[in-house]
Amino acid sequence: MNWLTFAIATYLLLLLQVGLRGLFDFNVTAIEGAEPNLLLILMVFIAMVAPLHTSLWAALILGLLADLEQRQALVVAGDEPMHAVLVGPWALAFIAAAYVVLQMRGVVYRNSPLAFALTVFIAGMGLYLVHTAILSIRGLPFLPGEAVAGWSATQELIGAFLNLVYSALIALLLHLPLRSSERLWRFRIPTGPARRAV
After folding, report:
1. How far is it between the farthest Cα atoms of the chain?
2. Nearest to 179 by CA among 110, 114, 119
3. pLDDT in tens, 88-128
4. Dihedral angle sign, alpha carbons of residues 98, 104, 109, 112
5. How far apart are CA 63 and CA 37, in angstroms?
């Protein structure tokens, strides 16, 4: 894979995701507004085409960027909530979601925008379930570490579902530009046992 193309695409999508957050925000419930996860869409695109190790490394990088982009309010014993960056929850969740796509990609028709959007939705379910589980475990009293302030796994999962619906709709629009740029990515797909995944 061409890592320069990956860096440029990641930068552009992260810039759109962060910079246009208020524009993307779609309040449909009392829960935090829904917004698409553009890094998830990019990860699914890469995992559907790239070799195993490349897909997992790309997922790790995208997850670390998602971790660095979001700040969590942590509850420290008796004090006001402290805002901090938690590195790890999104990174592990992106790796899990990439693994879901890697298991599915043999039966998904890559040229179909609908199949791409459905894959984004299914991989996103794995992504948000792992992320929610990690932050929920962090709040258990017998484990070290501070709990996330105001954390509710139920609200998080409802918000995640809305994010996934929104992400799948955006994936329908991004499918054609991503597929047409495949030449720039220079994916090397192993076709037999003689080829080694890079």
Report:
1. 60
2. 110
3. 899 999 999 999 999 999 899 888 999 999 999 999 999 99
4. negative
5. 11
